[in-house]
Amino acid sequence: MSKPLILASASPRRADLLRQIGIPFEVLVPNVDESRRRGESAEDYVRRLARSKAAAVRRPGRLTLGADTAVVLDEVVLGKPRDDIDGVAMLKALGGRAHTVLTGVCLADGEAFKTRVVTTEVRFRPISETLATAYWRTGEGADKAGGYGIQGIGSIFVTRIEGSYSAVVGLPLSETEELLTAFGFDPWGARLG
Fold it and tell me: What is the CA 64 to chain-centroid distance, rounded?
């Protein structure tokens, strides 16, 4: 029998992705400082946060999954928008260009940790001020890195994606299943009951 999985995340999107692939889990929300450290690369940042989230809620005898996603444009990490002005500015900056989405995923079992970072390139069509404002008013991008949700209305901006779609949503499913298998969790057994 597979060990029960803990999802260390308040993200409904990560929970939806795990449900989508039939992995049973329990949610425990970690209390982790998500500030980026001075000089920390975007890759190191998402790797550290994924590990910190998993470590914050891990329990003996349980596998714990943590993840974090960052949108990077011109080597600048775009977090969640602070307000309307910031959200619209992010969308306009992303418009007509390619940006990188990095998602760190970490699986912890006791003191053992395995972490992966998945890189995906996303290209947007040009976005006018009017379109950016209209999208922002939907509320969809307010709680998302880069100010957009690729799984919702924000998909209208995407002209190309190279890499993992699910990583852009918030959890790279292929890599997550590989980590689960490496720790002895049987995803197929969990799916079949």
Answer: 16
